[in-house]
Amino acid sequence: MPAPTESRGGEALALARELAPRFAERAAAHDERGRFPEADFAELRAAGLTGLMVPARLGGFGASFAEYAAVAAALARGAGSTALIFNMHASVTGALAQTPEHLVRALGAPESFFAARDKALEAAAGGALYAVAMSERGGGSRLSKTTTAYRRSGDGFRITGAKAFVSGSGHADAYLVTARDTESEEPLVSHFLVPAGAGVRVEETWDSLGMRATGSHDVHFDAEVGPDALLGGVEGLALLLAEAMPQWLVASYAAVYTGVARAAVDAACDHVRGRGLDGLAPVRARIGRAEAAVAAAELVVAEAARRIDADPGEDATNRWVWRAKLTAGDTAFQVASSLLEAAGTGASRRGHPLERLYRDARCGALQPATSDVCADWLGAAALGGDPDRDTAVPRW
Ligand SMILES: Cc1cc2nc3c(=O)[nH]c(=O)nc-3n(C[C@H](O)[C@H](O)[C@H](O)COP(=O)(O)OP(=O)(O)OC[C@H]3O[C@@H](n4cnc5c(N)ncnc54)[C@H](O)[C@@H]3O)c2cc1C
Predict the structure, then answer these.
(1) Domain boundaries, the chain
(2) Which ligand 1 atom is the nearest neighbour of the CA of 134?
(3) CB burial class (10 A; 0-12, 13-18, 19+) of residue 392?
(4) Which regions in the chain score pLDDT beneath 70?
(5) 64 CB within 6 A, ligand 1
(6) Ligand 1 within 6 A of 216 CB?
(7) Looking at the domain covering 131-235, what would its CATH class be?
(8) Residues in domain Acyl-CoA dehydrogenase/oxidase N-terminal (predicted)?
């Protein structure tokens, strides 16, 4: 799909760059307490950025994927956790706004879906925050392992199950939940938008190595929802969309982790200058290698994003999507690790920006698709196979 013509993506990027230094000032406190960054989200809402992906006709910025990627990287340069929660929200609103209408209609979506979609997008432009509840303990983010179930109830659905690692949980207005149909022979997995409140319980379990302020707790669902909660208006779309247009599942994190990697270069330069280490050639060489690696990863993400906007769902586009996730995830932790060594033990103290960035950067390769899964997918493609099918276990 071509980039929306009414986009105010440039304005959004300027706002993100303005907010990022304030996020950076608060990041250490949020990280230490493992708390949701409320002040950051108050500012994102005030700037209207929860409406980044919402079309202009519904009150948003109407950003393209490339504009999202630039905003996410700018926010992550300030605070990785804030940018990661924002990424989950952008994935929900971006997929809703950018999945082509003709495709959804061809799949059988009823007219009522479009009204429900616009209502959810309008709410986002007004400040509503959405989280993604896909992963489960034991099965990770693999759709084929989904145990959270749904069944028809009245004219809607009842959703029952437990999700894990839900960034922004307890602070989101609604959750995108993946759930499996218990009444069908087929392993149908569908997306639902489940409002916070009755039938949704957060269990505070998140106390992890990195991205601590994402508050990615377990969430338990036993919720009744109306028919409009079924995203796309059709059951069983989750796998189809994951394979056909993987950008919001695979590549949206990439921008966040290039931002974290760029922040590590910034922090290393500050530290090295402050300690008078900038005359040491081995230290400078590590900074030089890191800077070049981050610039290369930024270019890979930008190329993937450009193709997502120009030719979404094309084979060549999807190959860049997987390259972007692999390159950004691996670059972030390699760069942060090398820079910590260049900066020395003082930078490994709790509360030093490089110490936090080292931990945050380690998470990129773990998020789906993991770096190992991306590399296997790309290897299968390079060998001339079908990377979605040539696999011992399902990709999703
Ligand atoms: C900071 C952070 C925030 C997160 N936020 C969210 C969120 O908001 N919402 C959400 O739903 N999830 C979220 N997650 C969860 C995350 O995105 C993954 O789904 C989860 O980490 C996967 O679970 P796992 O690592 O336990 O297991 P797995 O993904 O099962 O990985 C375990 C091992 O199996 C390998 N593996 C996995 N799949 C395959 C495959 N198909 N083929 C071969 N090997 C495979 C992996 O490479 C890895 O080595 C978050 C994770 C992190 C780190």
Answers:
(1) 9-129, 131-235, 245-382
(2) 11
(3) exposed
(4) 1-5
(5) no
(6) yes
(7) mainly beta
(8) 20-94
